[in-house]
Design brief:
Elements: E1 2-8, H1 19-27, E2 30-35, H2 41-54, E3 61-66, H3 77-100, E4 104-110, H4 120-128, E5 133-138, H5 143-151, E6 163-166, H6 167-173, E7 181-185, E8 200-206, E9 214-219, H7 220-238, E10 243-249
Parallel strand pairs: 1-4, 1-5, 2-3, 2-4, 6-7
Antiparallel strand pairs: 7-10, 8-9, 8-10
Helix pairs in contact: 3-4
InterPro entries: 4pyrrol_Mease, 4pyrrol_Methylase_sf, 4pyrrole_Mease_sub1, 4pyrrole_Mease_sub2, CobF
Pathway: Cofactor biosynthesis; adenosylcobalamin biosynthesis
GO molecular function, one term: precorrin-6A synthase (deacetylating) activity
């Protein structure tokens, strides 16, 4: 049987890896490194850099492979994502079978933590329907932790809950009833524009935890345009962007 090791590696800073993550990566027989295509090679390079930093001499073999591109022509968003995950699972299964055979420990580096707005576990469950597979998860530092650490803020108000949601849900449904604090992930850009910025504060980070991290904070009405412009420029420079933000109602 294959043991698939899903290792949370933090938000892009090799120093964020836990001791457990380093130990497990060194114990693997094979590390899979996905390539996401033109303009996103630095995502694969970050994984390579982590391997160079933490793997011992003579450590596990690394194998790179190309991920399928998501079909954006289907109007149903969830159907598009489900089909894309099916295609990724097929590619995973093919590469695991070809590179590892019927047994061994195969590691996959997951940004942040596999449990939080990441589809790696869902894809792994699909692979487990195709191959005899045991899934092991090693938790990692999330972008939410990197965001709040970078801005030096707590994620919640005193004794209060907070809600983690997506940019799509904020844009489509607005501010959730009864919520005081939102952490917004997977925003394609500017979902906060649906809010009356006078009544909210925002803490925004792009590339949270990485050397090129960008932070902007303030009253939403004062900094919304700056965030949108900065985000667009950073995406153009890098070919991709990962950002996250916290919004809190003003007292």
């Amino acid at each position: 049987m294959i043991e698939l090791l899903l290792v949370g590696v933090g938000a892009g800073n090799p120093k964020h890896l836990t001791l457990e993550a380093i130990e497990v990566l060194n114990s693997a027989d094979l590390i899979l490194i996905p390539r996401k295509g033109t303009g996103k090679d630095d995502l694969a390079e970050l994984r390579r850099a982590i391997c160079r930093d933490v793997l011992s001499d003579g450590g596990p073999r690394q194998h790179e492979f190309d991920l399928p591109v998501r079909d954006r022509s289907t109007p149903d968003y969830l159907k598009r994502v489900e089909d894309w995950h099916d295609a990724i699972a097929d590619v995973w299964a093919e590469n695991i079978t070809a590179q590892a055979g019927p047994s061994g420990r195969v590691a996959f580096l997951v940004w942040g933590d596999p449990s939080l707005y990441d589809s790696t576990l869902r894809i792994a469950e699909r692979v487990a329907r195709k191959l005899p597979l045991q899934i092991t998860v090693i938790p990692g530092i999330t972008s939410v932790q990197a965001l709040t650490a970078g801005h030096v803020i707590p994620v919640n108000g005193l004794g209060a809950p907070f809600t983690i949601t997506t940019g799509r849900r904020l844009r489509d449904f607005g501010w959730p009833d009864g919520a005081e604090t939102l952490v917004v992930m997977l925003d394609a850009g500017g979902a906060f524009e649906v809010l009356d910025g006078q009544h909210y504060d925002i803490w925004w980070s792009a590339f949270a935890g990485m050397p090129e991290e960008i932070r902007i904070a303030g009253r939403l009405s004062d900094v919304a345009a700056q965030i949108i412009d900065t985000r667009a420029a950073a995406r153009a420079d890098h070919g991709w962007i990962m950002d996250v933000y916290l919004i809190r109602k003003r007292p």
